[in-house]
Amino acid sequence: MNFPVRAITLDLDDTIWPIAPVMVRAEAVLDQWLRTHAPRTAALYPIDAVRALRDRIAGERPDLAHDYTTQRRLTLQHMLRESGDDLALAEPAFDAFFAARCEVEHYADSEAALARLAARVPLAALSNGNADLKRIGLMPLFRFQLGAREHGRAKPDASIFHAACARLEFEPAQVLHVGDDIEMDVVGGRGAGLRTCWINREARQWPGQHPRPDLEFSTLTELADWLDRTSLDRAVVDGASRTDTTCA
Questions:
Q1: What confidence tens digit (pLDDT) does each residue in 46-59 have?
Q2: Starting at the edge strand that comes first in sequence, how are the strands of the sheet with 195-199 ordered?
Q3: Helices (H), the chain
Q4: Cα separations (Å) of 193 from 28, 167, 170, 190, 196?
């Protein structure tokens, strides 16, 4: 499929890097930090108990569904309060966790592909997660990063896609949203009027109840290849049109 793309919005977790190993490592870092600085909390809340408490707080606070940072802070405050440790430790504990959460290992294709995409069109990060591209080191490739916490609503809500398009100064139909999640990225992006690209690294089957994305690739490299071809084809057509006009 060939269509013009003026800008790209990209999901982060499981699109540019795998999130599962990041979270396992971040939880282990937090556990070790608590063992050192709040041993009673660490004893009362091993890693599995921390996960269960965070899930419980997320369920009790649907108003924070878009805000993983506040969910995590509330979890830490609850843990410290219940164990009798100093509540002032919640912020440095979160800082230790969040630093590890931003220590991601990119998919092998990601950095080179992102550089190629950014050389063609403006890129914007559009994520429900709370990763910080400045800490991660990818911010120079992006025009901006818009998170669900900052915006106030999470994907697949159309408003977060529209907010990104407004900042890019393009109509939704001129923007391609790229991500791994069928509901959040593909269904959400399509519902907001954007073109969509599904990054399907695990060869999953597309569910029949949803219209297919405009594009489907297994890597960001394949997307960069497609954009290169599309841009070249458009340049050839534009050049031919100018030649025809001059000859006329």
A1: 999 999 999 999 99
A2: 144-147, 123-127, 7-10, 175-179, 195-199, 215-217
A3: 20-37, 39-44, 47-60, 68-83, 90-101, 110-120, 133-136, 148-151, 158-168, 188-191, 220-247
A4: 40, 16, 12, 5, 9
Six-digit token pair at 147? 């998170």
pLDDT for 70 beyond 60: yes
Contact 25, 103 (CB under 8 A): yes
This prediction's pTM = 0.90
Identify which of 116, 224, 124 has the alpha carbon closest to the alpha carbon of residue 165. Answer: 124
Average pLDDT over every residue of 27-41:
98
- Inter-residue contact 80 to 87 (CB < 8 Å): yes
Longest dimension (CA), the chain: 84
DSSP 3-state assignment of 123? strand
The pLDDT of residue 237 is above 50: no
d(CA 11, CA 182): 12
